[in-house]
Amino acid sequence: MHATAPPEPATASALVRIEPLGLVFASEPGVTLLRAAEAAGIELPSSCRNGTCRTCLCRMRTGRARHVIDWPGVSAEERAEGWILPCVAEPLGGVTLEVPGARSIF
What is the pLDDT of residues 20-76, one digit of tens each? Predict the structure, then answer.
């Protein structure tokens, strides 16, 4: 059995699309999806900001992201279905998130 290396962090900004609103913003390397959304004037559901409460749980429709903590509150089955926690996830390129509770604050 071979160990799998964790994915490399992103090295360039990534475009993030929030559906169903169709909002698009850039996320810089090392910035979580939640913080990048906030910087772009987009409010995503959130509470704890450390991956345990699951308030921000949403489905990633396209792209890849990595959780920046070892065990966020997402099961292996949920991960396989595309569920992520934007408060502790960084995109590894362009991603599309399905976040029905998102809203623009501008």
Answer: 999 999 999 999 999 999 999 999 999 999 999 999 999 999 999 999 987 778 998
Nearest to 32 by CA among 88, 79, 72: 88
CB-based burial label for 46 (10 Å; 0-12, 13-18, 19+): middle
| 90, β-bridge pairs | 66
Q: What are phi and psi of 59, to 5 degrees?
A: -100, 130
The β-bridge partners of 98 are: 19, 59
Neighbours of 2 (CB within 10 A): 4
What is the residue extent of each domain of the chain?
14-104
Compute, in degrees rounded to 10, the torsion defined by CA atoms 80, 84, 90, 93.
Answer: 50
pTM of the model: 0.87
Domain 14-104 has what CATH class?
alpha beta
> Cα 101 from chain centroid?
14
